[in-house]
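Discussion board: Methods & Data

I've been asked by a reviewer to show the raw model output for two of the constructs in my manuscript, not just the figures. I'm not sure how much to include, so I'm pasting the format here to get opinions. Each protein appears as its amino acid sequence followed by a line of discrete structure tokens. Is this the kind of thing reviewers expect to see in a supplement, or should I convert it first? Here is construct A:
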Amino acid sequence: MKIKEIIACLEVIAPPVYQESYDNAGLLTGDPEAEATGALFCLDSTEAVLDEAIAKRCNLVVAHHPIVFRGLKRLTGRNYVERVVIKAIQHGVAIYAIHTNLDNVYSQGVNSKIAEKLGLRDTRILSPRQVLKKLSAYVPPTHSETVRQALFAAGAGSLAQGDELSYATLGVGTAAGTPGAQVKLEVFFPLALEGAALRALRDSLPGQPFSYEIVSIENPDTRIGAGLIGQLPKAMSGKAFLRHLKESMQLSCVRHTQLLEKPIRTVALCGGAGGFLLSNALAQGAEVFVTADYKYHEFFDADGRIVIADIGHYESEQFTIELLYGIISQKFSNFAAYCTEVNTNPVHYYH
């Protein structure tokens, strides 16, 4: 099995098109055509993790955070980023990062893993993204059903409201001044499926004349976006929730704002730095917002309306390793996949 097959499996879950504009997710070093000898899953591809991969004879490291983020102008080994890249190249180790694209998916994403650990129910994306498009295809009436089914098979027409959704209008088109019947077939699809939808359209109309247009639409896709919000099975006091949070996420401590007098039932969360979602959490009635990387002055923004619980960046995403390992080991049961044994958290706590 080639490295590119492992990558393809991961990108079905979290297509690269869903990463943020500032991100650098994807294959950072290595040959995608190389045979995969094993994969090591981690949050950060540090030197210690790379040494572990080499010792375990893994030529693929799958990390959540991209080791190359701000760009490299030289490779001299002067810092840990350059040293990791040099060693990876020297030992033929591919490094693949699956970052904000994994943050932004609802199913099998970073935030759904946190929600699972906390036992949340009725979860949904906290801040859905506008990543839906609409394909309008003008096809012969005799082929409209064939085209429709081909588009459905490619994943188009599948929205949160249901599957195989489409709209058809019978009309008259002209070619060289000659009128003829045409069906305008319309389907919505997520941004990541644009290529698949177009291939399905072309392949279903061999030798037939057709035209199409694709437009972006304002409707948010409730399966793609930042953060998550859900309900606890039963309401609990602020102290009880913090204890539940600490135990469920295996935390040594929780930084938090003043607890509220009312019980906690609705929980908003975002793995990593999620302070930008506080207004979304408030607008949707969350009593607590679980995230990381809050600065001192930002805690004041809670203003007695919500509890901000900062659990640490590494801590909030630590189970992403388990998530990624599960995806690959389930798909390729005989493949040598490992969770790193290295704790890459650069933050230490003195108790």
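Construct B, same format:
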Amino acid sequence: MAIAGKKGNAITTLEGIFLQGIRFQGHGVLKKLWKLQAVFKHAVGAWLKRRRMQKRESILVPVAISFSPTMRCNLSCVGCYSRDYPRDGELSLEAIDEMLSSTERMGVFLFIVTGGEPLMRDGMLELFQRHKRLLFLMITNGTLMDDKTAKMIARAGNIITVVSLEGSREQTDVRRGKGVYARVESAMKYLQSTGVAFGFSAMVTRENFKTLSSEQFIEEMMARGCTLGFYTEYIPVGSKAQWELLMEDNEREQFRERVLELRRSKPIMLAHLPDDEYGPDGKCMAVVSGAVHINAQGYVEPCPFAHFASDNIREKGLDEILRSPFLAQVRSSHAALHRGHQGCALFENLDILKEIAFKTGARPTDIASPVSTAARPGYNAL
């Protein structure tokens, strides 16, 4: 996943972790990252593979792929982007194993594992552990974490766990369910006891952006052992989208400035998505660089927030899918990828995305509609 920040603060998920880790070496961050050195040593080899694929076969292979092994979840969080995905028809473990092997051969290095709740899928951690040349950044709600699972993650040596919360105890329990914050605390305690690098993930809304960007919150996360944090702005996807949670432009700018200040002053690695993903020209560099989302049914989408696909890895190899007319046209569309006022460019330019989908034969991948739309004026489903 390419991440390009504004105002000279450009980072990438991988380079940012390494470079900021070195800067914070006196705070124990580098020591935790060193536990992942066995997988990081394969990063250069993966880069060479990607270059060969692009030069010889004209395939733009992304450094990172988002992957949802399941859309099942034991929570029902307010504003969940994956609420309308089907829960059945998941890829088999054998199909996932083959997908990981093929992407490894192509030069993919990082998998952002999301969902659904990844820990609801039996056998995933064992599968990740077998693919030693890949780095897995797993986003979990933390409720299924226990001592055994934390130790398995530590032994794997190629998994970074990111635990989701919404800010304070009250904010987390309101959006995720009563008692969830306490279970997040327990999950972080289990992970901290192993000495591995782990972090937090938070959905940023106009209700919690001040809490999440406060020094007090960051100090608390660091005290719990977090070495990195991922802020993702709320995108109103799904049949129960809440548009009133979107930050206004001035609120987004306030939040951005606070994140930049925290990066400079605190020994914790922070990513701000999708803001970090835009280049100087205002285009989403994640999509431009070839990043995709593979959902639990095997459909390959241009983004986790853009629920369209023309192909499925059950039927075609990913190398062929990455050259598909649908993904090629999405990547080359300046209008579809140019940022506006809602965080995610593809979601904000949904009409353009729908037009590309119609022309190339791509279809919606969720149950209800193509990125549903409660209260969105002028929305017409395919």
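Answer (T.O., handling editor elsewhere):
This is acceptable in a supplement if you add a one-line summary per construct. For B, something like: Residues 249-265 form the longest helix (17 residues).
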